[in-house]
Amino acid sequence: MTWASRPAESTGLQKPSWAMVEHVRSVSPHRFTARIGIAPDEIVHEVTDWITDSI
Fold it and tell me: What's the start-to-end Cα distance of the chain, in Å?
């Protein structure tokens, strides 16, 4: 599995979200102007593990 899907209730977003770890890209922090949701620690660790395993 290369993506992590999460329902909106667990992230504070209005729609379900996902991380496509096979498409990792760098993003300038200046593009983030406001917080729209949050990734629970469990999800951050899961995605980090997937990325680490793929490189």
Answer: 15
